[in-house]
Automatic annotation (TrEMBL), chain A:
Alphabetized GO MF terms: catalytic activity; metal ion binding; thiamine pyrophosphate binding
Protein name: Indolepyruvate ferredoxin oxidoreductase alpha subunit
Organism: Hoeflea halophila
Pfam families on file: TPP_enzyme_C (PF02775)
Keyword Membrane (UniProt): no
GO biological process: small molecule metabolic process
Gene3D superfamilies the UniProt entry points to: 3.40.50.970
Residue span, 4Fe-4S ferredoxin-type domain: 610-641
Keyword annotations of the record: Metal-binding, Pyruvate
InterPro entries xref list: 4Fe4S_Fe-S-bd, HACL1-like, THDP-binding, TPP_enzyme_TPP-bd
UniProtKB/TrEMBL annotation, chain B:
Superkingdom in the source lineage: Bacteria
Signal peptide annotation: none
Taxonomic source organism: Hoeflea halophila
Domain Pyruvate/ketoisovalerate oxidoreductase catalytic, first and last residues per copy: 30-216
GO molecular function: oxidoreductase activity, acting on the aldehyde or oxo group of donors
Annotated DUF6537 domain residues: 263-476
Gene3D superfamilies listed in its UniProt record: Pyruvate-ferredoxin oxidoreductase, PFOR, domain III
Designated name of the protein: Indolepyruvate ferredoxin oxidoreductase beta subunit
Keywords for the protein's UniProt record, in alphabetical order: Oxidoreductase, Pyruvate
Length: 715, 527
């Protein structure tokens, strides 16, 4: 079950012609797919398109009704491979994953798909994870479009434009027999807005029809000599066909006056940012009517030189607004201008930074710099000769405000695993540790600081392969259940078995692909009506030949985890040592259990609710517990006691009583400050009587002692 | 370069409609309900005939990281406006910060400017890991953010919206929404805000309560400082107990009258702590020690030495041993505090589990000092004892038997003066006091700093050992420094370095520096 449910929102997908759809970008994309008569959809979750996968999953019923096949693919590679259905059959297919890492994983299939070419429209919706809020290395998916000759759409970030580009993408794909990538940036996925809906369309030719009438044509298979022909086909036929389609259907847009001394060429995704900068420069109105002509590339690959030259006509300078590096578009346009012998200045990365997100300030500075140079008379007088605007001197907060990277949630079952590893390291010294993609990568941050690399999804153990031969201290690698099923079983576990790795592999099994929003995976324990779950990781690991496997079913048992780790690090066993540490993701567990618990309490059934606390008199304010935890609910408070210099630990009401505090205090022999309080709702008759008797006796003892000594009433 | 081209176009007049765009940024910590708040604002704006665009960055930011939600809105017309998808420096009208340091982050990023920005911030703190893990006090100073906010914002509203929400049984998103409405920064009526909450359907009653509280406070333009601590010392001042003991206490209290004015409060606090720890005689001992320090003090220095001694002698005398922990855990006042914190509903029962992990050291510590010393000298006996006792013990103190165990242990504190641990602590304290008083003769300020170094001794087991070792190392550094003009200053730096990280890396660095110049004749004194 995913973290966010779209069960309510997907009902909006059913609306038809004449109605207005309003909602988030990802929902609009799904609606557009249905309107375009898509025959099959799939993908792999990951920010910023995780929610698109969740929407598709929640909309499965609606999809099935329309005859659309939905597949939650095992990886981006699997998703891209699924587009093979559009190679021979006139079926529109769409898959989604994040870029560029998802595209990296999918690139083998994408390259083959591009070489084969397609009959039905094939659309890859890429959530470009770039800039603020990104969780990955900063690269561009653009390069993949160029190397494989796929077309790349980058629509303006508003709902009508995004929806239109889905239709245009399929049409372009079919007109040029080429798969198309549709790129949406982080914020466009979640931007809200509205558009005029159309009726949903049943696919004219479904995947079931295809199964009934199979086709094949070896000219489409990537094998010599056909692959050589396919390359020529790309260049001689598909490319010109695409360019023709782009021009004829006006996929790219032009705004502003025809006559002007300068102009701006921009990626569609940059449109709102450019308009805002122009608005702030007094060169555009609230509706985006601009004085500076804009050439908006809703298709960023391939470029259409003639269209560009037409835009350049009569201008002395053009600015290219292209986010990220390298500046593929600017290079291509520059080369085109040079070869055509035109005398026009081309600006881009000389005015705007080569690397990093084009935020509001960056865009404003870049456009102003360009206009100041190329058309200063267009700038308002205020900007041409700026009065020294007095800015108040602000105190420097850079040393005050702490950084706040993401971390484990309250009650996360991964925290005790890393507490145990940290304790093990305190005993045996630092180890070579490789991380993987997933929530567990937060362990590389303080307070744990465990692990020094991440090479890719499912590649944690594989990235320790150089150390597989063993040595004085064994290497440790971490792998999540998401990564395990994505790629890890073969690339990491199989690899370790085959190469007789001496390393220790910890598989963090929290029953979901948690980092991407809690989607189910093969080993999930929950019943999923449309997917097969409940396949234990330990079985899979044994199945590929791991002999030393330890299953831990309660990660909060820190001493046990530490013991198993110790055993793994010291055993004589030859071959990889795999520890599967399983406990349910607390975020999901809470979402599942909280309503049930509240219901049970209301119905008068006996329920225990645990919570932890710290005795402030006993805590000395050393914070050793926090250095083994980092739990959001374990915080500090300052006491109104002049004898105390340092704040003491304190647990707030967000505590879910996972037990980590107590286990760690015990395992690390920290201090006796922690206590667990379990509130028993609706206790039985005997329990109540006994409880009252106990508290009365205890209170009597307490009073007795108090009456013989001096005490100061503390509250 | 063709830069001389002249345009036939005249610069256009700025579009006045642009001023109608209201730009709202919400800076929150993952899990604070920023998404809910955004939906409410959006709904409210729709109700008032505005077009709105909202965006957010979900990603990994939702896992306790810092995150931004951003909205733009303008009165609807026949044509759609073009809105930006992200806030820009100097271009935000309303900045809602769901936590004090996030307000600071917003200021740093330039989102708060005096010409236009209303800054609405919750004054509570959600501490970052980097603040919490420092062995000393690593909590960032909210006052600095408030000072910056007062300059940076056109209007600044701050109060504890987290507490307000919790008190109302709701989430901070509701009180923030109330504060946003109450600030009047959005041109909408209160009813339309409340209608948005009602339409969202879940936990409406509680949300409306939190909303109302936020609304009232913000309408009053409140700026409230972050507040810490719930323990009010004045309520703890009254002694309770049998009258003959109270009389005796009053005699001790009277003794503090003779102390200098500025020392008296601290001395009373210290006195209470040591009497609470042991008994009234122990309190008298404390005052004797204090008098001893007072004899060496200098009225010209405002009795700073005695003041620090009053604090740290009390802390040294009231160390944490097994008796102490057992006593504190079994007190009625402690049970009441736990009950107050957990606030179990009517008709429920509460189980209470303590996490104890005794080691041989603790067991030997409560033995008579001679026996204890002999045992701790023998590695074999220590190993044996460790094997017997060293394991995690969970005691259910709501049950009679485990409670009785701790209760009896707590009662044994009567015999504390004869234990090994007491002997060790006393020895350590006396040596420290002696050293400090010796330094005082040489350099008053250094004497004071040497007293303050006692702050480093804290924690249990390994942590305690580490604290002691840091204390020793700082005192070694002080020995090198004694006699220099800047000795007190360096002593303070050493102590701060010791508190900055767990392992003492910074302390090691600082000591290296000290060794590089101290102990050698007048080298580093030039600067």
């Amino acid at each position: 079950m995913a973290e966010r449910s779209f069960a309510k929102e997907v009902q909006k997908l059913k609306i038809g012609e004449g109605e207005t759809f309003s909602g988030e970008g990802i929902l609009a994309l799904t609606k557009a797919l249905l309107e375009a008569g898509v025959g099959y959809v799939g993908g792999y979750q990951g920010a910023p398109i995780s929610h698109l996968m969740d929407v598709l999953a929640d909309a499965e019923e609606i999809l099935t009704e329309l005859g659309v096949r939905y597949e939650a693919n095992a990886s981006e590679a699997a998703a891209a491979a699924m587009l093979a259905a559009s190679v021979h059959y006139p079926i529109r297919g769409a898959v989604t994953f994040k870029g560029p890492v998802g595209v990296n994983v999918a690139s083998d299939a994408l390259a083959n798909l591009s070489s084969s070419g397609v009959t039905g429209g094939a659309l890859v919706i890429i959530g470009e994870d770039y800039g603020e809020g990104s969780s990955i290395m900063q690269e561009r998916s653009h390069a993949f479009a160029m190397k494989s000759q796929m077309w790349l759409l980058d629509p303006r970030p508003n709902l009508p434009s995004i929806v239109k580009s889905v239709h245009q993408g399929f049409e372009l794909s079919e007109a040029s027999n080429t798969p198309v990538m549709l790129m949406v940036r982080i914020r466009s996925c979640h931007v809200t807005g509205s558009f005029e809906a159309r009726d949903n369309k049943r696919p004219p030719f479904t995947v079931k029809d295809a199964l009934a009438t199979p086709r094949s044509d070896y000219a489409r298979v990537v094998l010599p000599p056909m692959s050589y022909l396919q390359e020529h086909d790309k260049i001689n036929n598909r490319w010109p066909a695409a360019q023709k389609h782009i021009v004829e259907n006006k996929l790219n847009e032009m705004f502003g006056p025809k006559e002007a001394p300068v102009g701006i060429v921009l990626q569609g995704g940059m449109y709102n940012g450019v308009i805002r900068a122009l608005q702030r420069l007094g060169l555009a109105d609230i509706h985006g009517e601009t004085d500076v002509p804009l050439y908006v590339l809703n298709v960023t690959y391939p470029l259409v030189n003639d269209e560009f030259f037409e835009f350049c006509e009569g201008k002395s300078a053009v600015l290219v607004v292209e986010e990220g590096q390298p500046e593929f578009i600017e290079q291509a346009l520059g080369a085109a201008l040079y070869k055509s012998g035109r005398n026009i200045s081309l600006h881009g990365k000389d005015m705007l930074p080569m690397a990093g997100e084009y935020t509001g300030q960056v865009m404003l500075d870049g456009l102003e710099a360009f206009l100041r140079k190329a058309a200063p008379e267009m700038l308002p007088a205020r900007l041409r000769a700026p009065n020294s605007e007095e800015k108040p001197a602000l105190p420097d907060l850079s040393k005050t405000v702490p950084i706040r990277p993401p971390g484990f949630c309250t009650g996360c079952p991964e925290r005790p695993i890393f507490a145990a590893i940290k304790l093990t390291e305190q005993e045996f010294g630092k180890h070579q540790i490789a991380g993987d993609i997933g929530c567990h990568l937060f362990a590389t941050l303080p307070p744990f600081e465990i692990g020094g690399s991440t090479m890719g999804y499912g590649l944690g153990p594989a990235s320790n392969a150089a150390f597989d031969g063993g040595g004085e201290k064994r290497s440790i690698s971490i792998l999540g259940d998401g990564g395990f099923w994505h790629n890890g079983l073969s690339s990491s576990i199989g690899n370790a078995v085959y190469n007789k790795s001496d390393g220790v592999i910890v598989v963090v099994d929290n029953f979901y692909s948690a980092a991407t929003g809690g989607q189910d995976v093969l080993s999930s324990r929950a019943d999923n009506p449309t997917k097969a779950t409940g396949h234990p990781i330990a079985d899979a690991v044994k199945g590929v030949g791991v002999k030393w496997v330890r299953q831990l079913d309660r990660t909060y048992d820190v001493p046990k985890m530490r013991e198993i780790l110790k055993e793994a690090l010291t055993t004589d066993h030859v071959g990889p040592k795999v520890i599967v540490a399983s406990s349910e993701c607390m975020l999901n567990k809470q979402r599942r259990e909280k309503p049930l618990m509240n219901k049970a309490i209301k119905e008068g059934r006996r329920v225990e609710k645990p919570r932890f606390g710290v005795d402030e008199d006993i805590c000395t304010g050393d914070h050793a517990c926090i250095r083994l935890s980092g739990c959001p609910s374990l915080s500090l408070k300052k006491l109104d006691d002049p004898l105390r210099d340092d704040p003491v630990a304190s647990i707030d009401q967000s505590c879910v009583g996972c037990g980590n505090c107590g286990e760690v205090a015990d395992a690390a022999v920290l201090c006796p400050s922690f206590f667990r309080a379990e509130v028993v709702h609706n206790p039985g008759w005997l329990e109540r009587k006994l409880g009252n008797l106990r508290s009365k006796t205890i209170a009597w003892l307490q009073d007795r002692r108090s009456s013989t000594r001096i005490e100061f009433a503390r509250t | 370069m063709a830069t001389t081209t002249l345009s036939e176009l005249k610069p256009r007049q700025p579009d006045l409609a642009l001023d109608q765009i209201i730009k709202v940024a919400i800076m929150a910590v993952g899990g604070q309900g920023g998404g809910v708040l955004t939906n409410w604002v959006e709904d409210c704006a729709h109700r008032n005939g505005y077009v709105v665009q909202a965006t957010s960055v979900a990603g990994v930011a939702q896992r306790t990281g810092a995150t931004i939600y951003y909205m733009e809105m303008a009165p609807a017309s026949d044509r759609k406006p073009v809105f930006s998808l992200m806030p820009a420096a100097g271009d935000v009208d309303i900045l809602v910060a769901a936590e004090m340091m996030e307000a600071g982050r917003a200021i740093m990023r330039g989102f708060v400017t005096p010409d236009r920005t209303t800054l609405i911030a919750s004054s509570h703190r959600a501490l970052a890991v980097s603040e919490k893990m420092v062995p000393g006090d690593g909590i960032a100073d909210s006052e600095e953010v408030i000072a910056a906010a007062e300059i940076a914002a056109q209007r600044f509203i701050a109060f504890d919206m987290e507490k307000m929400a919790v008190d109302a049984g709701s989430m901070i998103s509701a009180s923030l929404f109330g504060a946003l409405a109450g600030s009047g920064a959005l041109p909408f009526e209160r009813e339309s805000f409340e209608a948005a909450i009602k339409a969202s359907g879940r936990g409406v009653e509680a949300s409306l309560r939190a909303f109302a509280a936020g609304f009232e406070a913000a309408a009053g333009g409140l700026v409230e400082r972050p507040q810490w601590g719930q323990t009010k010392s004045d309520t703890a001042n009254a002694p309770r107990g049998p009258s003959h003991l109270v009389e005796k206490w009053q005699a001790l209290e009277a003794r503090t009258e003779a102390l200098p004015d500025n020392v008296r409060d601290m001395a009373l606090t210290g006195l209470r702590a040591v009497v609470d720890f042991q008994d009234l005689d122990y309190g008298a001992e404390y005052l004797d020690r204090l008098d001893q320090v007072l004899d060496h003090d200098d009225p010209g220095k405002d009795y700073e030495l005695t003041l620090e001694a009053a604090k740290y002698i009390a802390k040294a005398m009231a160390y944490d041993d097994v008796f102490r922990v057992a006593d504190l855990k079994t007190r009625g006042s402690r049970f009441a505090r736990v009950r107050n914190e957990i606030s179990p509903a009517e008709g429920t029962q509460m189980k209470l589990t303590e996490f104890m992990h005794p080691r041989a050291e603790e067991v030997v510590g409560i033995m008579p000092s001679k026996l204890g010393r002999r045992l701790s000298a023998s590695e074999k006996s220590m190993r044996l004892i460790d094997r017997l006792v060293n394991k995690g013990r969970r005691l259910r103190t709501d049950r009679l038997l485990p409670f009785a165990q701790l209760y009896i242990l707590g009662g044994l504190r009567k015999y504390r003066r004869g234990t090994l641990r007491h002997a060790i602590e006393k020895e350590h304290m006396e040596r420290w006091l002696e050293q400090a008083l010796n330094y005082r003769k040489l350099d008053y300020a250094l004497g004071v700093e040497a007293l303050r170094n006692r702050r480093l001794v804290k924690g249990y087991s390994d942590t305690h050992a580490r604290g002691l070792s840091k204390f020793d190392r700082v005192m070694e550094g002080v020995a090198l420094l004694a006699g220099r003009d800047d000795a007190a200053h360096w002593c303070k730096l050493l102590r701060e370095a010791a508190l900055a990280d767990e392992k003492g890396d910074q302390l090691e660095g600082a000591l290296k520096t000290v060794r590089s110049f101290a102990g050698q004749p007048e080298t580093a004194l030039q600067n």
